[in-house]
Structures are given as structure tokens and as C-alpha cells.
Amino acid sequence: MRPVLIALAVALPVAAACGEDQDPRVKLIRTVSENAVYAWEAAGTDGLYDYLASSVAANCSREQLRQAFAARSTPRAWRAIKDVEFPEENRAKAVVVVAQDWGDELQAWEFVEESPGVWRVSSLPGIEECGG
Fold first, then answer.
1. Residue 88 burial by Cβ neighbours in a 10 Å radius (0-12, 13-18, 19+)
2. In the chain, where the domains are located
3. Among candidates 111, 107, 97, 109, which has minimal Cα distance to 23?
4. SS3 content of the chain, % helix, strand, coil (to 5)
5. Strand arrangement, sheet containing 103-115
6. Strand 103-115 vs strand 91-100: parallel, antiparallel, or unpaired?
7. Which parts of 23-101 fold into alpha helices (H)?
8. For the segment 114-127, what is each residue's pLDDT rounded down to a tens digit?
9. What is the pLDDT of residues 54-112, one digit of tens each?
10. What is the pTM of this model?
11. What's the CATH class of domain 24-129?
12. Is the dihedral of CA 99, 104, 110, 111 positive or negative?
């Protein structure tokens, strides 16, 4: 009986992880988070701005984003995305892992599907300071 329980304990998390990766929305969100981080790293907040949801951009200009993020450090690289959840069909929450000068940082990001297959960033740490 014990070997079966151990096998299940190992198999269930693996199956859950594989199931998450099989959802095509996860791949789209992974791609937009990675592109947003690298655009932010390369072009500052102007690069990040291009990946913001239209509802965020409507309340937060490029200049306001620059000011809101002035004290934040710019990521050096995208590392991973994990713990992706879909509270609604067209909304997602995830932890985005970014490399900083001092090491990896886990950030809570949110995403919205603005049109079929087109996901944008609707929230990330510091965005609440923009346009408020």
C-alpha cells in the first residue's frame, strides 16, 4: 500500500503542473509576461507601457508610469511564471519571477484578455501609484 501512496503523491503534482502548461492561455500569458519584462529592461517603463491593458493605459500615461516607477529598480531578466490562476475566463493571476541586481524577485501580476488570444498586463507591483 505504501508504494502506491508514494507514487500518487509524486504523480498528482506532476499531472497538475502538466495540465496547467497544456492550457493555451498559460503559454500566452507566459509570453506576454516575458516580453513585458524584457521590453522594460531594454527601454525602461516606455517598453513596459506597450504591454499594459488598455484600461490601465487609459488612467496612466507614459509619463505617469515613469514617475510611478522612478524609485523601482528595472528588472535584469525574466526568469519564470508560476502559480497561474484564472479567476474568470478572461482574467489571470500569476507570480512572475524577475531577476534583479540582488537576486530573483517574485512579483504578483494580473492579466486580462482584451480580445481573443491577446493578453495584456492589468496589474503589477507599483502600478497602483500610476494615475491615482
1. exposed
2. 24-129
3. 111
4. 45, 30, 25
5. 77-88, 91-100, 103-115, 118-123
6. antiparallel
7. 24-43, 45-49, 54-57, 62-68
8. 999 999 999 999 99
9. 999 999 999 999 999 999 999 999 999 999 999 999 999 999 999 999 999 999 999 99
10. 0.82
11. alpha beta
12. positive
